[in-house]
From TrEMBL:
SUPFAM superfamilies: PRTase-like. Coiled coil: none annotated. Transmembrane segments: none annotated. Residues 25-183 form the Phosphoribosyltransferase domain. The keyword DNA-binding does not apply. One of its GO terms (molecular function) is glycosyltransferase activity. This is Phosphoribosyltransferase. The keyword Metal-binding does not apply. Keywords: Glycosyltransferase, Transferase. It holds the Pfam family Pribosyltran. It comes from Streptomyces chitinivorans.
Amino acid sequence: MRFHDRTQAGRMLAEPLRDLQRAEEIGDPLVLALPRGGVPVGEEVARALHAPLDVLVARKIGAPFNPEFGIGAVAGEGPPLFDERSLRMLGLTAGDLSGQVERERAELRRREHLYRGGRPALELRGRSVIVVDDGLATGVTARAALHAARVMEPEVLVLAVPVSSVQAAAAMEQVADRLVCLETPPSFQGVGQWYEDFHQVGDEEVIAALRASAAAR
């Protein structure tokens, strides 16, 4: 199925998560949305679970001659994660991308400061942390985000997405404690094809969602 927009997808994604909450499989939840596209989805999930919303900024590392083709990602303070198969296919090493990694890490820090307005990140230790994005293609960005969250010692680490490629979903099940995914279509060209409205989310929308969530709590 196709989702109308990220808001509808978030409301639908919240339903199985609320079932887990009622079954006490996730307690004291905290929602971390991957900006920018994951934030409207995460906002709806956080509202349904009566949970705080924060961002987990992860930056894609694109191929040198095709920046949209993600071959790695960086999140938090940990080392970058690369898709080794893509590196081999392109004849690249991690060292070849060190300059891009540093640029993306600097942008990551800039966005964290911008989105949070200087406030510290929420404490994850001992909580049920739900990482939310609007979809997974290769999954490399989500994988980096999950590794960054794991370092903070959550009790349970859940990845929740409306749609994913079959391959990415299988890979994420090895990284997250639980994967909640509504659709894994066998014919998957990109996340955007599964949304009628897949507009580019702006920084203002991210900031407004975080402020609205904080005010509601």
